[in-house]
Here is the input.
Amino acid sequence: MSTSIYRIGDVRERPLSGRPDDPPIVTALRYGVTAPSAHNTQPWRIELISDTQARVFVDPGRTLPHVDPPGRQLLIGHGTLIEMTSIAATGLGFRPEIDMLPDGEIAPTDIGTMPTATIRLTADPDITADPLFSRILHRRSSRLAHLGPPLTPEQRADIEQHARIPGVDVGWIPRDILPDVLRIAADAMAVEAEDRDLYDETRLWFRFSDREIAESGDGLHMDTAGLSGPALLLGRMFTRNGNWHKAYNRNPYLSGFRQAVGTTTDLLTVSMASNTMSDWIIAGRGYVRADLAADALGLRVHPISQALQEFPQMDKLRTELEQLTGTAAPAKMQMLVRVGRTSPPGLSPRRDLREIIDRG
Ligand SMILES: Cc1cc2nc3c(=O)[nH]c(=O)nc-3n(C[C@H](O)[C@H](O)[C@H](O)COP(=O)(O)O)c2cc1C
Here is the structure.
């Protein structure tokens, strides 16, 4: 069994590896590209316009067409990148200005050629650093079991207050329906894992060795999978590319998932009153603020997105969840997120900014 080079406490945690003479937009983006994205695809490409301006595009090679057919989670990921870059800019003494979808909504044929955002920074000696800046390099998702008591009302209120930016409706699943929602979330994961095409998409983004992790700088890997104890040992022994769809690989994962989800006491929701592309980006901005605020409280987030997804195999469970939570179109729950204390999770990798930037 190999020891992962991405273990917690590793001094290489989220390295920024910048140079002192980097332009301000590059320094801000170094923080930005540590943003969370579905399957850790990091689905962005960045074009530098000047030392203080950049445009962000979808990288068409980094989409999830089976599990995310509308590209909703893809653009939530762009929201997380944009927000983290903006927060970093304030910490570096710059005022960020963001134009979301500056050329309008992106048609499927224009993915990769139409920008999701323009980011402009202006030096401002009076700017106050966003307090979430200090959490950027620490935050990470944890799929592990929750330990300890439920969140206090003050902790919930603190997370809500940081995440509630205009348009974003932040809430918590009420405790009386929590068991039903958790059951739907676990069943939804089984639907995804038992469908060959859907689960194959996870295989494509799964990195099976430290070498693959280091070479790709993206994707998911065993130490971040959320298994612990015997299930993690089994997973490490049996998870090989060729074994992916075998029951002896999938079942320990699903039972580990059910166990971890079963420990949840606090489920955060991020919803929007409508469901447009700009709503998706804004939801991502709110979500990552919740993530950073949770980190500041010593808590970790774990999105459990399957039951929100739009592929037809999920219609039944998605409708059940919407009815239970009273969500009716055009409103849409964009993120459903476990929040709690966990043991230290594994660190997920990031690509070097140089691979992501086009110098225009
Ligand atoms: C839109 C979106 C959806 C996500 N959905 C899931 C999910 O369903 N299950 C999960 O374990 N993680 C989910 N994640 C978390 C990502 O997998 C995670 O952010 C990524 O692997 C990077 O790891 P990190 O957050 O620890 O940096 C989601 C993240 C985003 C932004």
